[in-house]
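Q&A log
Question type: sequence-to-structure
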Amino acid sequence: MTTFPQSPRLIKGALVGVDIANPLASVVVFQYNPATMTRRLEARAAGEGGEVGETTRLSGPPKETITLTVEIDAADQLEKAEPLAVGMGLYPTLSALEMMLYPKTAMVIANSVLAAIGSIEILPIEGPLVLFAWGINRVLPVRLTSFSITEEAYDPMLNPILAKVELSLQVLSYQDFSMLHPGFSLFMAHQVTKEVMGTLNVANSVQNIALGLKL
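Response status: OK
Response body:
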């Protein structure tokens, strides 16, 4: 990492889990931004296999998946003898990530009680709303579909101190939320930002064509 005084300050990517009971259920700021990220978009074609003239219709925004690998290292914290890192290594960070896939224990106990007293209908437990933040132009509601953790080094107490986490995220669109849900507004804002940037690119392309014709 450069220490040049005029080097730009990098914004860190992050995953944030939010729920009503605990507004910041899980916050994981990436220690090092991954060098690459893979995004896959699949069109929602309404007219696929349908009538003539329907082939260009879309039933909604594309299905988008994001995959990236994040490295986590406790070396700096251990060098500064930070108590949390000394006592538990990377367990707190890894646990914050994993809890985005777990239902809250309080809700599990409540549903178990309802089942024990004979309640007929028990709704599945709602997990936190997970936001993927990657700069000011990309804050997306996502579902953490899976991740794999490779623990690469341990301290004498077998606490992990170096790990690599491969994340797979499914972007949630306005089709996945009610209009009153915060995720609906977040995705709509994201799409509006894309539309604005796409328009700016058209203006830039026209300018490039004009310059090319002058040569």
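Response note: Residues 176-215 form one domain.
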